[in-house]
Specification:
heterotrimer; A alpha+beta; B alpha+beta; C alpha+beta; B: alpha+beta; Uridine Diphospho-n-acetylenolpyruvylglucosamine Reductase, domain 3; Enolase-like, domain 1; five-stranded antiparallel beta sheet; four-stranded antiparallel beta sheet; 13 helices; 28% helix; C: alpha+beta; Aldehyde Oxidoreductase, domain 4; 2 domains; four-stranded mixed beta sheet; 12 helices; 23% strand; binds flavin-adenine dinucleotide; binds iron/sulfur cluster; binds FE2/S2 (inorganic) cluster; FAD binding (chain B); Mopterin_DH_FAD-bd (chain B); FAD-bd_PCMH-like_sf (chain B)
């Protein structure tokens, strides 16, 4: 590694950051393109040939159409706006909560094509044709989703900041697995932080919505 | 987050022709962020860096819609191809992977949160930047950002989660706990740039701070990870992975380890033991591997290998406790991997 | 709205505290003196207040000397975080009481029976110990294997605070609808439901029949949310106002029912003659007979019957005892709370479900604080380095133990609802109980929070102090 030429080159480039030559030598790798081969990805060449030209938009607003809770909403957004921001600020769907804004608490959970994701870490511009379901979209015909009803009956909400995210996680779990175990519920909510400590009631409520009798004092016995 | 232009790439060829800069370069103190164009996949790490104001690109090329990169493909004896856009959730759910590469699916299912796993991609996970608190804080222009100081090795600094090995220049550990398992299986990354495709063992793709403190890997401008190839394990291979954190729900690893063992006639013939959160790169524990070869796998040999794993450790002010933790989890992972 | 990072950096944190506590006792455990010097980081503010529990928990102690100091730091103000000061104080006090018990050779609960005057706490110790299986407790450090089990207990206490500025208006409309209005707010404790319950019960209705309007300063002033005082402050005036509105209604319908108002009662959505159950009027029909479109009553909190803090009843404190079982992995230092039994009191419980939630919350935040939470300030530059939620660790779903709650009800007849708060007292004992349990598991005491793998391993690596025998 102690190649004098490399060292001098690095110091000559100090601060510019983008020059790569000294680094490449240091890392002991032949420059990109030195070893040419074909990709191991099947069918890539054909797919590539058919690709449409890319779009560049922004930094100002661009109009997009989002599919939200069964409706189509046209909204002008900046590329930097997260889905959470667009839902809350542009569309006034404030049921979705932002707590950490970093992907670390899952309060902002929404479904994209039925898959729970953090809306604070999703750019709205990237949602495309995927169907967005928010907490506002769970109730059908004025009737709460069974998980929501169970949350009410079991007092699974205190301050309520984590609750929309919890409900979205638990309702999604029941969609994938109508008869979950306690451990499945814990896994499904393992990214949902609740400051108030509703977890035991969230477990009770979710299992109740699945028709499974369970009380928080049984945690040990039910451990899977 | 700063305002930026958005390009939605539709093919690898277009994407690699957008004049992009590796995020590591776009984050340097002296870089010109207003001219940087970067790649974004799931966006978990990119948005995190941008929200912390340590990354401010002028344009982002979204690669989430590139075709064909989101599949897991078993290519028989050649191994298994994992497309760069495969999400962690896909890896976690894959039955074949679970059977043949147990340590990997263990690693994936213990990484991050279910919501993050649904969005985060394999390529992005390998490329994520370290989580050293100083590095991620806009107030600290450390060595890794092109500054002149490492704040984590000053007296009294917060370094309890930092490296215990290879930590003399920069002690930030690599954030990808999945790479711990990938390296143990001898994974290779396929990199596609404007000039073509190259394949590098993942272990060598990572770069130590001594080679270049400003980056964690040798990705080039305009280059994309397109594929990760896992070689087919030999018959009789067993593997296991253990992640140790302060919390089980989800937590960054304090220490993690992947073990891949081959055994014949009750003796270990090949061992691959990789430590995560021990060093700035996923680190092969050569001494631990050597301690097992030719021996039966049992409590005693596993314990000896566990002790050997951190040979030469140079703990910082607040992280010596990691040494016994590594000894314990290496031992336990060896015993589990040896059960096969 | 601030996100979590901004909250941590700009709004304030639970003060860190250093507690130096000394206890003097006779050979039989009788307390002779306690001396406390405590320090708390008040940040740029004042009033870290981290010390009073040692003074108030064991009133058999004849001599107490306490000094509390605020340590000013350039690091954001100290802020209220569930029972300000008390968990810090209990962490020191309740470990020291356990140490004293070990030293004088008696069971930790038996010693408390001797030195604690509170009858309530005595009963809580008894029922809690039974439910928990305290008698199966093993000697410290005697649990076999790599992963050791241990149990421990600690007591909590919190003042019975009342806010006299607590008022509300109850309105009854001619269409039979009932409203209660107060500027009290619901932080998630359930006061909205509780108010509906209190008014409904008084008027023989269902809680769903009552519209609760709160959280708006246009309404009569309500108590601030702090000090666990909401329920104890606002439910008595709610009940009184409902009663007064009810009396107006009874007076209005009495002539047409041909019975004196004093002979009428609210039962199951009806107004019924006490002497003749056949004689009744539905609530809605009755309301139509009001002389005006609405009647209302505004009431405020009155002094407790007989004055505050009646000695001999409760010593002015609510509280409880929590029993904790932990496992400690002695190779990795990982501590897991497996099981908690909490025996608590808060006067007369009004909503058992919400009460259970509050206690769950107190316990889970207590475990979180005991094992995970820590504000890391860089010593050289003064920045909080772990302000985000992936860095500042709080308990998640996988860290939730089995929780068993026992409410010991207490009727002191001090107000028209006899209700008191619970949220803070449910948080005070937990960390101390976890620490006592960790000690029981590994035979080494840990005097610093959070009890991380790092601290456990460091404690285990130290040459063993002389271990006490139970
Ligand atoms: C709460 C939380 C907990 C976490 N815990 C863990 C954990 O336990 N273990 C773990 O491993 N990770 C963990 N992570 C990190 C997370 O897994 C990564 O941030 C994520 O995998 C990044 O993937 P992405 O697709 O979102 O990448 P992006 O954010 O889109 O990109 C990340 C980087 O990779 C580059 N990039 C992306 N794709 C490619 C490509 N194909 N070729 C070249 N460059 C590319 C981007 O330019 C960028 O520099 C956690 C994250 C959070 C928020
Ligand atoms: S450890 Fe590395 S990333 Fe952290 S402050 Fe030091 S140089 Fe920067
Ligand atoms: S607000 Fe999105 S994960 Fe916390
Ligand atoms: S109910 Fe308050 S954070 Fe969960």
């Amino acid at each position: 590694m102690k190649d004098p030429e490399e060292n001098s080159e690095q110091s000559a480039n100090a601060g510019r950051g983008l020059s790569r030559r000294g680094f490449l030598k240091g890392a002991g790798i032949t420059a990109a393109g030195g070893v040419l081969m074909t990709s191991g990805i099947a069918g890539l060449a054909d797919a590539e040939a058919a690709a449409p030209a890319p779009d560049t938009v922004g930094p100002g607003r661009t109009s997009v159409t989002l599919k939200i809770n069964g409706d189509k909403k046209k909204v002008a957004i900046e590329p930097r706006q997260t889905l959470a921001e667009v839902l809350r600020i542009e569309l006034n769907l404030t049921g979705t909560k932002v707590v950490c804004d970093r992907g670390a608490c899952s309060a902002c959970t929404v479904w994209l094509d039925n898959t729970p994701v953090n809306s604070c870490m999703t750019l709205a511009i990237e949602v495309g044709k995927r169907e967005i379901t928010t907490i506002e979209g769970l109730a059908k015909n004025g009737k709460l989703h069974p998980v929501q009803e169970a949350f009410v009956a079991h007092d699974a909400s205190m301050c309520g900041f984590c609750t929309p995210g919890m409900v979205m996680s638990c309702a999604s779990l029941l969609q994938r697995n109508p008869k979950p175990t306690l451990d499945d519920v814990k896994t499904a909510t393992s990214g949902n932080l609740c400051r108030c400590g509703t977890y035991p009631k969230v477990f009770e409520a979710t299992l109740a919505a699945a028709g499974i009798a369970y009380s928080q004092t049984q945690a040990q016995a039910a451990k899977g | 987050m700063n305002a930026f232009q958005w390009t939605d790439a539709t093919s690898v060829k277009q994407a690699t022709g957008q004049n992009t800069t590796p995020v590591a370069d776009a984050m340097l103190v002296n870089a010109k962020p207003e001219s940087a164009t970067i790649f974004k996949a799931g966006g978990v790490d990119v948005l995190d860096l941008m929200k912390e104001h340590v990354l401010a690109p002028a344009r982002i090329v979204g690669i989430g819609n590139l075709p064909k990169l989101d599949a897991i493909r078993n290519a028989g004896k050649d191994g298994t191809h994992l497309g760069a856009l495969v999400t962690l959730a896909q890896l976690e759910r894959d039955g074949d992977l679970h059977k043949s590469y147990r340590a990997l699916t263990e690693a994936v299912s213990h990484a991050a949160t279910p919501q993050v796993r649904n969005a985060a991609t394999l390529g992005g996970n390998i490329m994520q930047r370290p989580h050293c608190w100083y590095f991620r804080n806009e107030n600290f222009k450390c060595l890794k950002k092109g500054g002149t100081v490492c704040f984590a090795n000053q007296p009294g600094a917060e370094n309890k989660y930092h490296a215990i090995l290879g930590n003399q220049t920069c002690s930030a550990v690599h954030g990808s706990s999945i790479s711990t398992a990938l390296v143990a299986f001898g994974a290779q990354v396929e990199l596609t740039g404007p000039q073509g495709v190259r394949r590098v063992p993942l272990e060598q793709f990572f770069v130590t701070p001594e080679k270049d403190v400003k980056r964690e890997n040798s990705i080039q401008p305009n280059e994309l990870i397109t594929d990760v190839l896992l070689p087919t394990p030999a018959a009789g291979t067993g593997s296991w992975y253990i992640k140790f954190g302060e919390r089980e729900s989800y937590d960054w690893a304090l220490a993690d380890v992947a073990v891949v063992l081959e055994q014949q006639n009750g003796r270990c013939t090949k061992a691959s033991i990789v430590l995560g959160a021990a060093a700035p790169v996923p680190l092969r524990a050569a001494a631990a591997e050597a301690a097992l070869i030719g021996k039966p796998i049992n409590e005693e040999t596993a314990r000896a290998a566990g002790q050997a794993a951190t040979t030469g450790a140079t703990p910082l002010e607040h992280n010596a406790y990691k040494v016994p933790i590594f000894a314990a989890i290496v031992k336990r992972a060896i015993l589990k991997a040896g059960e096969v | 709205m601030l996100d979590r990072r901004e909250e941590h950096v700009a709004v304030g944190n639970r003060p860190n505290s250093v507690q130096n506590l000394r206890i003097g006792a006779k050979k039989d455990g009788t307390l002779t003196a306690m001396q406390l010097t405590s320090y708390g980081t008040a940040g740029v503010g004042l009033g870290a207040g981290v010390g009073w529990i040692a003074e108030t928990m064991y009133l058999t102690n004849p001599n107490f000397k306490g000094e509390q100091y605020d340590v000013l730091t350039n690091a954001g103000p100290g802020a209220a975080f569930r029972a300000p000061g008390a968990p810090q104080g209990a962490f020191a006090l309740e470990q020291l009481i356990d140490e004293l018990a070990e030293k004088v050779g008696v069971d930790a609960l038996a010693l408390r029976d001797k030195i604690d005057k509170s009858e309530m706490r005595r009963e809580q110790r008894r029922v809690g110990a039974e439910r928990f299986g305290w008698s199966k407790r093993q000697a410290p450090g005697s649990s076999p294997g790599v992963v050791k089990r241990g149990v421990g207990a600690a007591q909590s206490e919190w003042g019975r605070f009342i806010d006299m500025d607590s008022s509300c208006e109850v309105r009854l409309h001619q269409d039979g609808s009932v409203e209660i209005m107060s500027s009290v707010q619901d932080l998630g404790t359930g006061i909205r439901t509780v108010l509906a319950q209190v008014v409904a019960e008084e008027l023989g209705l269902q809680p769903t029949d009552v519209t609760v309007r709160i959280g708006d300063t246009n309404y009569p002033p309500g108590p601030g949310s702090g000090g666990s005082k909401t329920t104890g402050s606002i439910t008595p005036p709610a009940r009184t106002a409902a009663y007064k509105v009810g009396q107006q209604l009874l007076t209005a319908v009495a002539p047409s029912m041909g019975v004196a108002a004093s002979e009428l009662a609210f039962v199951g959505g009806k107004i019924v003659a006490k002497s003749n159950a056949g004689k009744s009027l539905s609530f809605r029909e009755a309301a139509q007979k009001l002389p005006t479109q609405q009647v209302s009553a505004t009431e405020k909190r009155k002094d407790d019957y007989g004055g505050f803090f009646r000695p001999g009843v409760s010593f002015g404190q609510s509280g409880g005892i929590q029993f904790v079982e932990v496992s400690v992995d002695t190779e990795t230092g990982y501590v897991k709370v497996e099981r908690v039994v909490g025996a608590h009191d808060c006067g007369r419980p009004i909503n058992p479900l919400a009460l259970e939630s509050q206690i769950n919350g107190g316990i889970l935040q207590g475990i979180s604080w005991a094992l995970y939470e820590n504000r890391h300030m860089d010593r050289n530059y003064g920045h909080m380095m772990n302000a985000n939620l992936d860095q500042y660790k709080i308990l998640g779903s996988r860290e939730v133990p089995q929780i068993d709650i026992i409410m010991v009800e207490e009727y002191t007849a001090t107000s028209s609802t006899d209700a008191l708060g619970i949220a803070e007292s449910a948080n005070v004992a937990t960390a101390a109980a976890v620490a006592n349990a960790v000690y029981n598991a590994i035979g080494v005491r840990i005097y610093e929070l959070p009890i991380t793998p790092e601290r456990v391993l460091n404690a285990l690596a130290k040459p063993k102090q002389k271990l006490g025998k139970v």
